[in-house]
Fold DUF2262 domain-containing protein.
Amino acid sequence: MFEITSIDELGCKISLWGSGGRDARLSFTCASLDVTADRDAISAFCDTLRFRLGADLELSIERDRDKVDVSGMVRLPIVFRSRRKDHILAFVRDTYRETLQPLIRTRTSSYLGRLIWDGAQSGWTTSVTIHGEQVPVTIETWSDKDITPIVDGAEELIKNWDSWYPRITDAMTQDLHGIYNDNWRTDGRPKLDSVQFLERLAISSISCDESGWRSVYFTQDELFTDHIIDVRISPDNELQAVLAG
């Protein structure tokens, strides 16, 4: 049994599931779709799906006005047979961007305030003020799980920033300061002491995911060319600073 679920920036939930072999079912749940007005668009989408996936695909669509609930959500189950399940979700997401009207999805956190869904980042986004600067915060999620524990983790980090920040700078100094001086420093540039090293770094964003990991990202003034610094905080609150990007 397998299941893949994606929620894109248009507020469309796309699920692909099946029991193995060639049988699978692709289910759409989306908002802002008028069944009557978009009948031609839906038919065109199905024709395009057949064309893009080729003769390997057998597809049928079930549509009924009873599937439109009071909130205006429309459910379009599409049953298909294909060996090419690996890229169908990406294709469907691209098609949605062209055929459905955008939908802004928001939710509210008591501490973080208004969270806005960003499908490009697969997460809920907001911003907070740290060191006098606006810092983007992303609550990453790739399933239908309750995001409350992820939000709680983000809130704990930001509420206790004055306690976390010394640990974060210690991790960057321990894990990356020596690496810069020994391996990344170009000829002619003097070595940096730990204070000078940290002065070149600036927080750029924060992300928290549903596995319990939190990341605090820093720009590094080209010390490590085009990389960014990712200070990773494990579910057990262990810290490690690594280069990313």
Notes: Helices lie at 39-53, 88-99, 148-159, 161-184, 194-199. The domain at 2-99 is CATH 3.30.1360 (Gyrase A; domain 2).
